[in-house]
Amino acid sequence: MNPDPDRFDGILLRYSPAETRAALLSLLEGRSRERKVTLAEAQLEDGQRLLGFNDLFIGARTHVSARYKIGFGGRTEPHSSSGVLVSTGAGSTGWLSSVFAMAGAVSSFFRGQARPRPAPRVGRSPAGLRCPGALCEPPFQGGNRRRSDRGPGGELILESQMPSGGVIFSDGVEADALDFNSGARVHIHAAARKTHLVTN
């Protein structure tokens, strides 16, 4: 339900408050259609895990450089950056889209272009059939990749090199975070658990 359409785009919030009663009745009576939505999962090697509907952030709790090793597809490299943002298909219209829009606008300004390129989406739909997509800076050293899109089988592995202040949180909720300090390793992948989006 979108509580305030004037303030929220509500790309996945299909119902207004006035429509909520009818939508709930339709759901309870089995007349609604649903779409499964892929979640991102961060799993530490000590068993702690965190699910993200929109995205996961892995980095430093304060505005300092995060230090970590990043691994994907058999490659591992040390990185120092603002952190790693992992987005689901659902989240590709949110934080990830804002990052690309900002980067595109800055790039267009310095190149003298009239307007920036549109931000790419992760996955085939807002509900997201592919997950997760990851964005980090700088790119993998020796290459030009700042963004990667992976199907459900892909896994990103990060190992913290931060003595303190390392953090993993989902969907912008910093208060409910996992500590990610020196030696901690996290595996990021599409979660087996799905959530259901009521579409009508």
What does this structure look like?
With 200 residues, the protein is mainly beta. The protein has two domains: 1-32, no CATH class; 36-90 and 126-194, Tumour Suppressor Smad4 (Sandwich). The chain has helices at 20-28, 95-111, and strands spanning 34-44, 49-52, 55-60, 66-72, 75-81, 84-87, 133-136, 147-149, 155-160, 166-170, 178-179, 185-198. The protein is globular. The N and C termini lie close together (12 Å). Mean pLDDT is 80; it is low at 122-132 and 139-146.
The rounded distance between the terminal residues' Cα atoms is: 12 Å
User: From the coordinates shown, what is the CATH architecture of the largest domain?
Assistant: Sandwich
**Order of secondary-structure elements:** HEEEEEEHEEEEEE
Question: Rg from C-alpha positions?
Answer: 18 Å
Strand content: 35-45%
- The helix tally amounts to 2
Mean pLDDT, nearest integer?
80
Regions with pLDDT < 50 over 5+ consecutive residues?
122-132, 139-146
Number of domains: 2
Percent helix, as a range, is 10-25%
Question: What's the CATH first level of the largest domain?
Answer: Mainly Beta
Q: Give the helix/strand class.
A: mainly beta
What is the overall silhouette? globular
How many β-strands, per DSSP? 12
Chain-wise SSE layout:
Layout: H1 20-28, E1 34-44, E2 49-52, E3 55-60, E4 66-72, E5 75-81, E6 84-87, H2 95-111, E7 133-136, E8 147-149, E9 155-160, E10 166-170, E11 178-179, E12 185-198
Antiparallel strand pairs: 1-2, 1-12, 3-6, 3-10, 4-5, 4-9, 6-7, 7-8, 9-12, 10-11
